[in-house]
Write a structure and sequence with these properties.
The protein is mainly α and 146 residues long. It contains seven helices and no strands. The protein has two domains: 62 residues; 64 residues, lambda repressor-like DNA-binding domains (434 Repressor (Amino-terminal Domain), Orthogonal Bundle), CATH 1.10.260. Helices cover 55% and strands 0% of the residues. Helix 2 runs antiparallel to helix 3. The longest helix is centred in the N-terminal third of the chain and has 19 residues. It starts with 11 loop residues before the first helix and ends in a 6-residue tail after the last helix.
Length: 146
C-alpha cells in the first residue's frame, strides 16, 4: 500500500509517509510504540492538524494488521478495561463517552459484560483494534444496550 501526499511534497508529512510506506509493525513492542504515537497524533488531529491524517490512518492500519496475527491471552472485558484505564490514567468518570458511569462500574465489578457498542467506543477511545477484546463478549452481547 502506497500513501502519497502530493499537496505537501516537501513537508515533514511527505517525508514521514515515504518512510512509513516501508514500515510494518512486527512485534508487541513496535505495536505499543506505534499506539502511543497514534494517541499523540489523534490529539493533534483534533486540534486541527489535518496534514497528519494520512500517516495516522496508515499507522493504525499497520497496528490492526499486526494485532490480527497475534494470539492474545484470554482476559475478561473487565480485566481489559481496567488495564486500559490504568495505562491511560483514567477513572470511571473519564469513560462517560463510552457508557454511563453506573454501567462502567458494573462492568469493572463483573456484574455486566461489555457489549459491541462499548467495545467500538473503547477501541476508538484507546486506539486499539476491537479484535483485542475477548471473542465471547463480541459474540454474546451483540444485542445488549449501551
Amino acid at each position: 500500500m502506497m500513501i502519497t501526499n502530493k499537496k505537501h511534497k516537501n513537508s515533514e508529512a511527505a517525508i514521514a509517509i515515504k518512510f512509513l510506506n516501508k514500515f510494518h509493525v512486527n512485534n508487541d513492542k513496535e505495536a505499543t510504540e506505534a499506539g502511543e504515537l497514534l494517541y499523540q497524533w489523534k490529539k493533534l488531529i483534533r486540534e486541527g492538524d489535518k496534514e497528519i491524517q494520512g500517516i495516522y490512518n496508515y499507522l493504525k492500519l499497520q497496528i490492526d494488521q499486526y494485532e490480527q496475527t497475534v494470539q492474545h491471552p484470554e482476559v475478561t472485558g473487565a480485566e481489559l478495561l481496567k488495564y486500559l484505564m490504568e495505562e491511560h490514567n483514567h477513572k470511571q468518570i473519564d469513560l462517560t463517552d463510552v457508557a454511563p458511569r453506573s454501567v462502567i462500574r458494573e462492568i469493572l465489578h463483573g456484574k455486566r459484560d461489555l457489549n459491541k457498542n462499548h467495545i467500538a467506543r473503547l477501541a476508538c477511545k484507546y486506539n486499539v483494534s476491537p479484535a483485542l477484546y475477548p471473542k465471547e463478549i463480541t459474540e454474546q452481547n451483540s444485542l445488549s444496550s449501551p
